[in-house]
Design a protein that fits this description.
Layout lengths: L25 H16 L4 E3 L9 E6 L2 E14 L2 E7 L2 E10 L2 E7 L5 E7 H14 L11 H8 L3
Bound molecules: nickel (II) ion.
């Protein structure tokens, strides 16, 4: 296991759409394990493979001790609404309020390629939406209340 470098705002790879995982092999396990090391080393709650420069649909999350690995995740149902502050390891020195669904159901595969579905509320829903957005080249800044201020200061990248 090893830490990988987290891409920062302005890196064009953060804006690419990631491709589905098709091989559930040692390379994927290594990526997942490295992502875990990288997330914990940076005190993150979630990390998308895109953030370490790997354009594959892989997400990990740790919500208060519950650890999730989501391969090829898709939101298949969502309901309600919540507003809370978000931050991102790829967007240093900025946090802002983002509107998200209150509850989501995510369909994904585990690291061995088996399908599962998981439904969660609040932080689970917020984090899953944030990380899946990464796989589509979307950053929380784009959905935040003060995005215009941010773009004005750092540019719309
Ligand atoms: Ni993020």
């Amino acid at each position: 296991m090893a830490k990988r470098k987290v891409l920062k705002y302005g890196d064009e790879r953060l804006r690419k759409v990631a491709k589905p995982v098709t091989e559930f092999d040692d390379d994927l396990f290594e990526l997942l394990d490295d992502m875990k090391d990288t997330m914990y080393a940076n005190n993150g709650m979630g990390l998308a493979a895109t953030q370490v420069g790997v354009l594959r649909r892989v997400v990990i999350m740790d919500l208060g001790g519950s650890f999730f690995e989501l391969i090829n995740p898709e939101i298949v149902a969502s309901s309600g609404e919540q507003e809370d502050e978000e931050g991102c390891l790829s967007v240093p020195n900025f946090s802002d309020v983002v509107k998200r669904p209150y509850k989501v159901t995510v369909k994904a595969k585990d690291r061995y390629g088996y399908d599962f579905e998981i439904t969660g509320e609040k932080y689970f829903a917020r984090c899953a939406c944030h990380e899946i957005d990464h796989l589509n080249g979307i950053l929380f800044v784009d959905k935040s209340e003060n995005r215009e201020k941010y773009y004005k200061k750092y540019g719309k990248k």
